[in-house]
Amino acid sequence: MKQTPLIAQHRAAGAKLVDFAGWEMPIQYSGVIDEYQTVRQYAGLFDVSHMGRLMVSGIGGLEFLQSVTTNDAGKLAVGQAQYSMVCNDRGGIQDDIFVYRLKPMDYLLCVNASNREKIHAWLQTQPRATTVVLEDHSDRMAQIAIQGPRSRDILLALGGEAIRALKLHHTCDAMLGSIPTLVARTGYTGELGYELYVSADQIGLLWERILELGVSEGVKPAGLGSRDLLRLEMGYLLYGNDIGEDTTPVEAGVEWTVSLDKGEFVGRAALLAQKECGPMKRFVGFELLEKAVPRHGFKILDPVSSQVIGEVSSGNLSPILQKGIGLGYIPTAQSAVGTPLTIDIRGKGVPAQVVKTPFYRKPKTV
Q1: Number of independent structural domains in the chain
Q2: What is the CA radius of gyration of the chain?
Q3: Do 144 and 44 share a domain, yes or no?
């Protein structure tokens, strides 16, 4: 398995390590629920260095991005970021990514760990000007995320004054504990939080300084288990579960990431046709009406006919709601909020209903 530059820190902290997309990653340290509660109440520190970090730079870089991503990167000012998709010709999602405009002609693409090599290789096959430089910085640049209501205070205490007024989906350069850091106000938990991009040879030092200085604020290291619970409660997509090359942004309910009027891009024709005709299936959130836990792969049934109409793509017991919640695709005609469903949980039909996501709504922060 591949390892991030923080593997020694994970082992020293007693993390339970698992294989995640070919990476040896911490699933938990103190326990999934304890880490989940820590993020909701204080701050959790996540290693996300397994993600891919690709750089697109040079004259013509924007035009190249416009042709290979669905969102309108032309709207990004320097220091801004946007959620976007990389699609195939059929409109299927090759990956969901974040695009950061770091300088007038420098863009950072954060891609999923499981798709890093695939997306890098695919981008290299796409037409671009000879002045456009495409590089994989994943090994030289590491990435951690601090998420939770105390995260800003912790970074300010580390000397990151530049982040005080940082808005959602914006970035800035800061010195955190004397370490040069690219700070992005982004995350995968629904809480106030930041993702920190640092040279791989300094990430261990920054990790240790955050945990040492943040003790008084309740910070703890957190693993993939709590991260998955947190993102599920927000209805955030997980590549390989909720989306893939056989699903489109329109079906997944994120058509706001698709800018059909920006010009041609890979998958545009298919997405335009689907948007005009309407998708046959829709991605929905649901909650169980009885005590049970839905899991990935469980069947979704029509409550009247008991026929299979879909499959759970993500599911778990929400700690904060104390009820089973899940995500999945069902026919568009049965996707309205309030529609009754049945979830087949190991042979037992458990009643459920379609609900609006996110399941969890946190207090607003500035």
Answers
A1: 3
A2: 21
A3: yes
